[in-house]
Write a structure and sequence with these properties.
Elements: H1 9-20, H2 31-42, E1 46-49, E2 54-56, H3 63-87, H4 91-103, E3 112-114, E4 121-122
Parallel strand pairs: 1-3
Antiparallel strand pairs: 1-2, 3-4
Length: 123
């Protein structure tokens, strides 16, 4: 007898949240990278996207910001791949679930975000 596991958005979100709570070693982001990304977010240069990755709100970003965003996104991609494997979904679905269940709730007033199919919006 075949059994099929069906993941609802709620169970997927729980699995993603658990995967995102992995030890810091699973997503090694330096304090400098975090500070650079946080500063770029506060300046309206970088924002959160519905796919779970950072994106550029404006084209004007210096090389340090670009490198910090790339490092952060690479770490997130690893986490999403781990969560996807654990939950039997695609990494894209894991990233989108992480945005909905974790990232979106951490947006601060003034932060920019881009919902699926939409443009940049200021919270």
């Amino acid at each position: 007898m075949l059994t099929r596991t069906v993941f609802t958005p709620a169970t997927l979100a729980l699995g993603i949240a658990a995967a995102l709570a992995l030890p810091v070693a699973a997503f090694a982001q330096s304090a400098q990278t975090k500070a650079t990304v946080d500063s770029a977010k506060a300046a309206g240069i970088v924002g959160e996207q519905a796919d779970g990755f950072l994106g550029f709100v404006t084209a004007a970003a210096d090389p340090a910001v670009k490198a910090a965003v790339q490092e952060t996104n690479a770490g997130r991609a690893q986490l999403y791949a781990q969560a996807a494997a654990k939950n039997g979904v695609t990494p894209a679905a894991a990233g989108a679930a992480a945005y909905e269940s974790v990232v979106k709730g951490k947006l601060r007033p003034g932060d920019y975000y881009r919902p699926a199919g939409g443009g940049w919006t200021k919270k």
